[in-house]
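User: quick one, sequence for these tokens?
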């Protein structure tokens, strides 16, 4: 099963929502395990397991890497800083 555009769109929305949830941050930055759990729960709720979670994990890893690079480049170290810029 490949990812359909509706899966990518739903992933992007769930990912952005989870990263902008202050509960998914700790003193050192984003807690990616919490973000991953929130994204997975949102997608399973929306698609009732009719989605390839392995391929979603690839999307997640790429998106997390982009956010980490962005935060490093912009010297973002807290949720408040990230939220202010997004």
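Assistant:
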């Amino acid at each position: 099963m490949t990812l359909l555009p509706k899966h990518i769109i739903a992933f992007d929305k769930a990912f952005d929502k989870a990263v902008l949830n202050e509960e998914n941050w700790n003193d050192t930055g984003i807690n990616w395990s919490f973000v991953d759990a929130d994204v997975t729960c949102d997608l399973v709720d929306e698609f009732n397991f009719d989605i390839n979670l392995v391929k979603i994990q690839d999307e997640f890893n790429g998106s997390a890497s982009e956010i980490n690079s962005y935060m490093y480049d912009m010297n973002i170290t807290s949720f408040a800083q990230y939220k202010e810029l997004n």
